[in-house]
Amino acid sequence: MKLLDPAVIGTIIGMSSRRIALVFPGQGSQYVGMGKALHDASEAAREVFKRADEILGFRLSHLCFSGPEEDLQDTINAQPAIFTVSLATLAAIKEKLHEAGVKLNPSFVAGHSLGEYTALVAANVIDFEDGLRLVRERGRLMKEEGEKIPGGMAAVIGLDEEVIQRACEEASSEGIVGIANSNSPGQIVISGELKALHRAMELLQQQGAKKVIKLPISIASHSPVMQRAAAQFAEIVSHMKLRDPQIPIVANVTGQILTNVEDIRRELSHHITGPVQWTKSIREMLSHGTNGFIELGPKRVLTGLIQRISPGVDTISTDS
Predict the structure, then answer these.
(1) Distance between CA 291 and CA 312 in Å, rounded?
(2) pLDDT score recorded for residue 292
(3) pLDDT for 320
C-alpha cells in the first residue's frame, strides 16, 4: 500500500477544493500485507491499528499484515480487517493533509456493502469502537448463517441484468440465488446457496457471459439466505446510539442520500439481505455535482467500477 506516495497526496490535495466523495471498499478486497506500509509510515494509522487490537482483544493488525491468509479470508475477520485498514487510511490521509495545511471536506461518503459501515464512522454517525464491534458482530452472524447454509458469490461480466435475473430464476430450482450487487454496467454479482449458485454460473456461461468468476467470499451476502442473520443484526442496530451524519451518506440499498438517523436505521435493517445498488449510488452523487472520487482502503476495486459507470471522471485509489 503506497498511499503516502507524494504523487498520491499531491493528487488528493489538488482534488480537495472540489466536490469530492470518499468511497470505502467491501469484503473481497482483503489481502495479506494490507496496511503494513501504512502502519510503518503514519502515526495516525498506527493509532487506529492499536485501538482495533485493544478493542477486539487480539492482534487484528498482525492478521492484516502477516496472515495467515485462510484466517484473513474468514468473514468474521475479513470484515473488521477491511474496516480498520480503510479507516487507518483515512486517518493517514488527514494527517498528511493537515501537515500541508489542507482540510478534507467531502461532499459525500459511500461504502460498498461492508464499506457502508466505514462510511458511517467517516460521517461521525458512530464511533470507531462501536463501528468495529458492529462489523465484527455482523461478520460473526453472517459466518454462522453461512455454516448452516453454505453459500457464495460470483461476478458476472458482460451480460444485461435482465438476462442474469432470468438465469437466477431458472437456477432457483436448486435453491436460493439472485442478484446481490449491481456494481457497474456490465458487472453484476450474484449470491446464493452453493448448488443454486453453481447452476446459475453454468447457465450464465452458456448465455455468453464474458466471465463468470467465483469470489473469495464464503457466504451468500445480500441475499435471502442471510435473513436470520439480518434479523439478529437489526435488533443490535436498533439499540445503538446513532448521530445524524456530518457528511451526507449515499445508501447501498436505495442508492439515495441519507441525512438523518431514521433513514440510516431503515437502511441498515435491510443491508445484509438487500442488493447493493452501487451504480445507482455513484450516479446519485454525480447528479449532485460530485466530480471526483477517492477510494480509501485495500485494493482499487471501486475505482475501476466508478470508471465504468462514468468514464473519464476523476478517481484515485490510495492503494496503488
Answers:
(1) 10
(2) 97
(3) 66
Length of the chain: 320
- Asked if 74 and 218 touch (Cβ cutoff 8 Å), the reply is yes
Is 270 one of the annotated active-site residues of the chain?
no
What is the H or E stretch that residue 12 is in? helix 6-15
Three cell numbers, residue 21:
466523495
Question: pTM of whole model > 0.85?
Answer: yes
What does the DSSP 8-state code read for residue 224?
Answer: G
Q: Which residues pair with 182 in a beta bridge?
A: 188
Residue with cell 480503510: 86
Look at residue 269 in the predicted model and tell me its pLDDT.
87
The answer to whether residue 3 scores a pLDDT higher than 60 is no
| CA gap 320, 316 in Å, rounded | 9
**Per annotation, catalytic residue among 29, 42, 61, 113:** 113
Catalytically annotated residue among 39, 112, 198, 222: 222
Average pLDDT score, the chain: 95
Q: Taking Cα atoms as reference points, which of 46, 102, 39 lies closest to residue 65?
A: 39
**39 assigned to active site:** no
- Sheet of 177-184: strands edge to edge? 177-184, 187-193, 151-157, 211-214
Listed in sequence order, the DSSP H helices in 16-127 are 36-41, 43-56, 60-66, 69-73, 75-99, 115-122
Specify the residue for cell string 441519507.
258
Rounded alpha-carbon distances, angstroms, from residue 14 to 18, 79, 109, 248, 309: 8, 31, 18, 22, 23
- The predicted-structure confidence for 204-225, as pLDDT tens digits, reads as follows 999 999 999 999 888 999 999 9
- Grid coordinates given for 6: 507524494
The contacts of residue 316 (CB under 8 Å, 6+ apart) are 8, 11, 12, 15, 292, 293, 294, 295, 303
Phi, psi of 152 (to 5 degrees): -170, -175
pLDDT tens sequence across 17-32: 999 999 999 998 999 9
